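Hey, weird one. I pasted the KIB1-4 beta-propeller domain-containing protein sequence into the form twice and got a warning about non-standard characters only the second time. First submission, copied straight from the form history:
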Amino acid sequence: MHKQTFFNVSENQYYMKSISELKQKTLSAYADEWLMLQSINSNDCYLWNLISKEKIQLPPLPAKCDILKCLLSAPPQDSECQVIFQIKETETTLDDDDTNEDEDEDDNTDEDSNEDEDVNSDGAENDDDDEEVNRLTFYFCKPGYNEEFHKQDVQSIIGDSRLGIWTVFKKKIYILIGMQDILICLDLNNDSGRITATPMAKESPDLSRKYSDHPWYNDYIIQSSSKDMLLYVHLISNGRKYGMPYHFRVLQFDFVRKRWMKVESIGEIAIFISSHMHAGTTCSTKGTNLNKESIYFTYSRYLYVYDLITHSISLSLPCPHVSKRKGHHMHWLTLNE
């Protein structure tokens, strides 16, 4: 709300800041030093550069809608930069009786006025029969270029409104859909204002049944630009109330075979996952103090490091001043110095 804490993992040092632009904002997505910020009091969204302080206002979003997720494909100076939102809009639909009544009104004559009064007197009761329908819609635009968002109904694009996790890979949007978590690629055409979906795989990620009896887990798809890989990270939890992460599995998508393959080693990179945003990033460990073959994540105030080779977990308390209360919003950023 008022202060922000930045922890440099490689230097093992934290910095407390009071950046006015970040006050009463939530971070939805980022690309390089460009942050997608949203007001906590409205759906006002814009891009803000953490280094240059430059700001790019986005077109207005509907005042009454729920912003579920957001992605930024590239920094604004990139010709392929686009921002896309998953928006849940609520629509009120009339039941069949209401629809029929509306159609019959055109055929009514003056002698039916008494009947009209009866219908109107029951209006409150008919309102109870109206249904609210949640519609999932993609809103997208090119920041600084479009004056309004393009929008398209999700169902019309992919034939399924059950959307899972998504990420940016090579400036394209990849998302898992349906009960089987099938990977598709979304192509955003800013000129036509249309989105096309291309299926990338015919089957879901094949996870071992060894941990199938655990009811709590989280999944992430993450791009690794340093190794040109699209990764699927499966986090399994245990302990009291199944809240403590304790095991990970990592898969890589094979674009030739069109399937997910188990990864035994990720080499000299580290994976960082953010539970709050259901997102993540990677970073090369060369020339840094970061642990290779590792996954960094947080739980409560603690920073954990999971070793993919030894399956061991270490923890530390990077920022002791952070409150113990729940509700912290933590984001991983890879910033150039």
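That's the output from the first submission. The warning seems to come from a hidden character in my clipboard, not from the data itself. Residues 214-337 form one domain.
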